[in-house]
Specification:
Length: about 350
């Protein structure tokens, strides 16, 4: 198992455990027949007399487990099961997101994973999958503009010419040229990358005149030109660290769809946004996984999923008419792009700090 595999597994476990913090009682079923159970008549946490499976004062499980097997059983529940709630939540999140949102707002909490727990898990899962499918971002040695690419191309061509001359000399003496052939192949690969950058067909080409009216973003651009590898690495870490900021950034925009409404409050909008972000993140995970399979062509179809999902969630959560749902879906799509842009500016500003 490589470091990237270990990091990916660690990200998923970390996400599940953090989600477990939000869902603290997930998987805590206990009975008198469980191995390692204790026979308390009072809560071991607050000493309140016990009535039922949980303490009615502090909520701790009535029976605590004191075996190694029970410890790992609880760990597996916390990481992978969410007490089975995840299997009731995900199908509704995908197909009936509005009903899920409304039922959670109205108080049906025990059946479903909370929006924040789901969002946390989806974010950690997304970054784990990203590291597996995209690998580490590495801009080191790659020219960032056409002028630098032209210089790099000339240098590589000179190296290839020198290596080919050396290969011809060795061949004339009947010597083995496998090692030098490998060096030529490596230089040819580098030459292809540089030529792609120069032709503007791919690669991280950075316009030397690129400017921003936002001082922090402008500083980030300058730092990216100076050290693209470091800034790209920092941007990934900050996106991971500040992913939660998408929630407060997005909620005011959703409020604008129902301004001064007495029926819907900021709490309703926050639940809506958090479930929606959780779904969009899981959709991103699906796209990343498809990108490394023969089903890569299906990604084009998934482009239409976000507005359709927004429409269904708006209609189910807020009871809008079809026309009202369509209009608000269009507005919400615009707002989502603005919120994402603000988030990118935040990450750029932090990366350039």
């Amino acid at each position: 198992m490589g470091m990237s595999d270990a990091q990916a597994i660690g990200d998923v476990v970390e996400g599940a455990l953090k989600a477990r913090t939000v869902e603290p009682h997930a998987g805590e079923h206990a009975s008198a027949q469980d191995p390692g159970h204790t026979h308390e008549t009072a809560c071991l946490n607050c000493a309140t007399p016990l009535v039922g499976s949980y303490c009615h004062a502090c909520g701790q499980a009535a029976h605590v487990h004191r075996t190694l097997g029970a410890f790992f059983h609880d760990l597996l529940h916390g990481v992978f099961h969410f007490e089975g709630k995840i299997w009731r939540t995900l199908p509704m999140l995908v197909w009936r997101p509005g009903e899920l949102t409304r039922r959670y707002i109205d108080g049906q909490r025990a059946r479903f994973v909370s929006p924040l727990a789901l969002f946390l898990f989806s974010v950690f899962l997304a970054f784990a999958v990203y590291h597996q499918t995209a690998g580490e971002t590495n801009f080191a040695g790659v020219p960032t503009n056409a002028a630098d690419a032209a210089k790099a191309e000339r240098k590589i061509e000179q190296k290839i010419a020198a290596l080919e001359a050396e290969r011809d000399r060795l061949q004339s003496k009947g010597a083995d040229t496998d090692a030098i052939d490998q060096q030529i192949d490596a230089q040819q690969t580098g030459l292809e990358i540089v030529r792609e950058v120069r032709s503007n067909s791919s690669g991280p080409e950075i316009d030397s005149n690129l400017q921003s009216d936002i001082g922090a973003v402008n500083a980030a651009i300058k730092k990216f030109k100076a050290n693209p590898a470091l800034v790209a690495y920092k941007a990934q870490n900050y996106a991971y660290k500040y992913s939660w900021a998408l929630i407060p950034i997005s909620v005011p925009f959703l409020w604008l769809l129902f301004p001064f409404s007495r029926r819907f409050h900021l709490y309703d909008h926050t639940v809506f946004v958090t479930y929606s972000l959780g779904f969009m993140t899981l959709l991103g995970v699906t796209i990343m996984l498809l990108s490394v399979t023969p089903l890569e062509g299906a990604i084009a179809v998934l482009v239409f999923v976000p507005p359709f999902h927004m429409y269904r969630q708006l209609r189910g959560a807020y009871g809008t008419s079809r026309f009202g749902g369509i209009v608000r879906t269009f507005a919400l799509s615009v707002f989502a792009c603005i919120a994402l842009m603000l988030f990118v500016i935040l990450i750029a500003a932090e990366s350039g700090a």
